[in-house]
Amino acid sequence: MNATGTKEPIIVIGAGIAGMTAAFRLQQDGHPVRVLEAEDRAGGRMRTVERRGYHMDLAAILLIENYTQMRALVRDLGIEGTTQRTNNVVGIRRGGRIHRMRANRPTDLKRSGLLPWSSLPAMLRLQADLGKYGSRLRWDSDMGEAAALDTETAAAYAERRLDAEFRDWVVDPMSAMFFNSPPDLSVVNFLFSMPAVNAEWFNFHDRVDTLTTALAARLPVETRAEVTQVEEVPDGVRVHWRREGEPEHTEEAAAAVVALPGPVAARLCPGLAPATLDYLANVPYVPDIHVYFGVDRRPDETATCVLFPQREHPDLGVVTFNHNFAPGRAPQGHALLTSYYRYPWAMRHWEADDEKVVELTHEVHRQAWPELARHIEAHQDMAYVQRWKNAVILRKPGDYARLRDFNRGLDPHCRIQLAGDYLAFSATNSSLVTGERAAERVRDIVTTGAVSAGRG
């Protein structure tokens, strides 16, 4: 609180879910906040684009009832009426057939026919491990407790604790949700994804950016405001930003929350501790290209998503049936489908234009799911390509131990606080939690007038 009795102003850089959650919580506490966003609209990866009546959620599409913090934020914003429980049927393709199961019914895996009965002992071992380690795998965690589990790849865990059938037809397709494959993925990601998927799901009626739109409506967000530097100064921070056609802006505040991808945060905050900068600059994001198809006739598929083991196709990871998640994704009688790839495919085709990517995706569909390919090509109404340079974080064995050490090494008194998916498990709710944590730290700093000891 300053000499006039009002609370100190705070600047937040980045209007994604992490940044705007931090800003909203600070605003609730009475701090004047200002949010700077380089893009022309807020939302980050929790954003929706509309084309020809189709609502395409660009990154976050699957929301889980045990996202406790997100549910609380929805209540605090007064938008509970915009959400609903949704279909949580997941399919896995094997031998040209879709094996369907409800995500919150583990027994469906036994009944689906995906695995032989000889894999039942592996299922029981996995359930035992999830029961044993579940308390370490939490959305509100900085993953410090999970670091002790981070000793092998998902593939090595499957070989040691499960069996070959489970490895090829469950562990492998689950890894596709991270655009990855078991030999490159920490076992923590696989273990984390199992209780996450084994839950009820919810979503917003029409579009997932209902949440970020509600936040933006309550916050002073400056769009097209490209921040060029954030520096800690005595008793505060100084932020430099620019907008095309305007002179450079310089603003000061009591503190700042930087809610941007790790490498971007490192570039903008050169005064942070060297160890902090090194970690941020090397956060191992992988790229993603995914392709939406609007069709004027709904296919018969009832699942929300169908996962593809590499034995079914080496590149295609997931096909989502967005109209099955919640209403409003497609016009009446129409359907919206999205194809996601494992990240090496995205790297190979990153420079291809959108028309070429759509053409390649049609070819992949013909190889992996011929019936669906024929349906899309006969009824295609719209196609849209989305690219994310920093899609998800590729966590290999040992990375969660490094994350634990990074979090423990951050200076709690620094006037520049960080938020983002690289501080926890790479998921929407975890990003939101890092924003709330950053807001708490900022409140403590400006209340006590603490001075940074280690700069980051």
Question: Could you walk me through the main structural features you see in this protein, from its secondary elements to its overall organization?
Answer:
Helix 9 crosses helix 10 (274-281) and helix 12 crosses helix 13 (370-379). The chain is globular. It is α/β, with parallel strands linked by helices. The two termini are 23 Å apart. The protein folds into 2 domains: 10-45 and 210-283 and 395-448, FAD/NAD(P)-binding domain; 86-206 and 285-392, Polyamine Oxidase, Chain A, domain 2, CATH 3.90.660. The chain has helices spanning 17-28, 68-77, 107-111, 120-133, 154-161, 164-175, 187-197, 210-217, 262-268, 274-281, 343-348, 354-368, 370-379, 399-409, 428-448; strands at 10-13, 33-36, 48-51, 54-57, 63-64, 83-86, 89-94, 97-102, 201-204, 221-222, 226-233, 236-242, 249-253, 255-258, 285-295, 305-307, 316-321, 335-341, 380-393, 416-418. The strands form 5 sheets. Strands 8-7-16-17-18-15-19 form a 7-stranded mixed sheet. It contains 15 helices and 20 strands. It comes from Streptomyces xinghaiensis. This is FAD-dependent oxidoreductase.
